[in-house]
Specification:
By secondary structure, the protein is mostly helical. The chain is 69% helix and 5% strand. Strand 1 and strand 2 form a beta hairpin. 45% of the residues are buried.
């Protein structure tokens, strides 16, 4: 079978697609997580909480598909990365999944009884289902930047030597808090486009402004720590992007400040951290001016910029090892076969546009501002 793209090109294409899926998840389910994280603070009465919940009710189930697609893409395109990360981060993944399970249960059950205590407990369950995944995802990204404590033996069997508590280092916690601030900002921006003017929206704007400032400060602090500490990895010697998918095939070394090297080699990449700073600032200005569309645009740009900064800084690394750099997984040494990547690309070129078209159609059909009157009279609302 003739394949029009060489192995290197397909590997880069799938690296871009993986980043696109992760950003897609953050842009869509990110504001669901953000609204859930804000729920106990922006909504004080039962009607106000139902207003916030039903702002995300039409979409939250569909948005989780992006998370599944991301995991599936890692499994199919980067099997070494899937094997090491999903086994090494098993307890963290379990914590995320347990928290995410609270969301559908909370949505479906909170309004089954009129009891205030019953509903309050489910509201806090929704809060946990929003903030815990956001925090753990950020902590995981922080650990990836630091390097994950795993090694591969001569038979390419992976051995993870870390613990769940060991993941929560100071830098990883900063990354986790940045992730929380990012989704809270995005959730507040989304509420600005979906609910009527009133106390809930006023509180969302206040918390959104705080989250915008926190995002800028935490992003800057994380950047200073990345640049100023012994953080980063680089490949040494001859690098063959068309070489075999064998992590032991390339020589990898830990090198302080290496994550910044891509910006010197490819200056155009600076657009990612620029967006990471400009997005929250734009959202803050829009909040002050009560411009909902500009607010949501700013939160979306912040999400894209912050996540893209991580990916561009690390390229070609996907999962470096902190205890054995030689075991580090990169775009070049941990992908599926040339033919597998090509077949998957053909399938993606057919299905991904359909998913995007359907998502856009659903948003268009179900979009509109929700009011307290809707909450009181619509029998289909949670």
């Amino acid at each position: 079978m003739a394949i029009p793209f060489d192995y290197e090109t397909l590997r880069v294409i799938w690296w871009v697609l993986l980043g696109t899926l992760l950003i897609g998840f953050a842009l869509t389910d990110g504001y669901d997580l953000g609204v859930a994280s804000l729920l106990p603070f922006v909504a004080k009465t039962d009607e106000e909480r139902r207003l916030a919940i039903n702002a995300i009710a039409p979409h939250w189930e569909g948005h989780q598909v992006w998370f599944i697609l991301g995991g599936g893409a890692i499994f199919a395109a980067w099997p070494f990365v899937y094997a090491v990360s999903f086994s090494g981060f098993y307890l963290a993944m379990f914590l995320v999944l347990a928290s995410l399970i609270l969301r559908p249960v909370g949505f479906k059950y909170r309004s089954k009884k009129p009891d205030a205590g019953w509903r309050s407990r489910w509201d806090w369950a929704l809060f946990i289902g929003g903030i815990v995944p956001a925090l753990v995802f950020g902590v995981a990204v922080g650990n990836v930047l630091l390097g994950v404590p795993f090694r591969l033996d001569s038979d390419l069997r992976s051995f993870y030597e870390g613990t769940l508590l060991g993941l929560f280092t100071p830098f990883a916690l900063i990354a986790g808090l940045l992730s929380v601030a990012m989704v809270v900002l995005h959730g507040a921006g989304y509420l600005a486009t979906r609910i009527e003017e009133g106390p809930v929206l006023d509180r969302a704007r206040r918390y959104g402004a705080i989250a915008a400032g926190a995002s800028v400060l935490l992003f800057a602090l994380g950047g200073v720590m990345v640049a100023g500490t012994q953080m980063g990895f680089r490949l040494e010697g001859v690098v063959d992007p068309n070489g075999p998918s064998n992590p032991r095939y390339m020589t990898s070394l830990a090198q302080g400040g290496a994550w910044m090297a891509n910006y010197a080699a490819h200056p155009w990449m600076i657009i990612a951290p620029v967006l990471g700073f400009a997005g929250p600032l734009l959202a803050w200005v829009a909040i002050r001016r009560r411009n909902a569309a500009l607010n949501f645009a700013g939160t979306s740009l912040a999400t894209v910029g912050i996540i893209a900064t991580v990916g561009l800084s690390m390229f070609p690394y996907i999962l470096p090892s902190s205890i054995d750099p030689q075991s580090s997984l990169t775009v070049w040494n941990s992908s599926s076969s040339h033919l597998t990547l090509w077949i998957m690309l053909l399938v993606t070129l057919v299905l991904l546009p359909l998913v995007l078209i359907y998502t856009a159609w659903v948003v268009k059909v179900l979009f509109g501002r929700i009011t307290i009157a809707d909450v009181r009279t619509n029998p289909d609302f949670y």
